[in-house]
Design goal:
The protein is α+β, with helices and mostly antiparallel strands. It has 1 helix and 3 strands. The chain has one helix spanning 42-53, and strands at 11-15, 25-29, 63-66. The protein starts with 10 loop residues before the first strand and ends in a 5-residue tail after the last strand.
């Protein structure tokens, strides 16, 4: 009998820039898009709050994506 290994899925909430391709922001989150603000640096929290405030102005609505980064 083989043991089943289950790798944890890592997600990120991505805010795509409406004007500059490649200038979006992304933040670690769970599968529901909840960002653990208490685990982010102060600068990352400020960037996250800025991105949320600028949805439709500078950033598109965010998408929950599987993370490309290894944790």
């Amino acid at each position: 009998m083989h043991a089943k290994t289950c790798e944890a899925q890592h997600y990120e909430l991505r805010f795509r820039s409406l004007f500059n391709e490649g200038r979006g922001l992304s933040f670690p989150c769970d599968e529901h898009g909840e960002v653990p603000l208490d685990q982010l640096s102060e600068r990352a929290v400020m960037n996250y709050l800025y991105a949320r405030a600028c949805i439709g102005i500078e950033y598109a609505y965010p998408s929950v994506m599987l993370s490309d980064h290894l944790h």
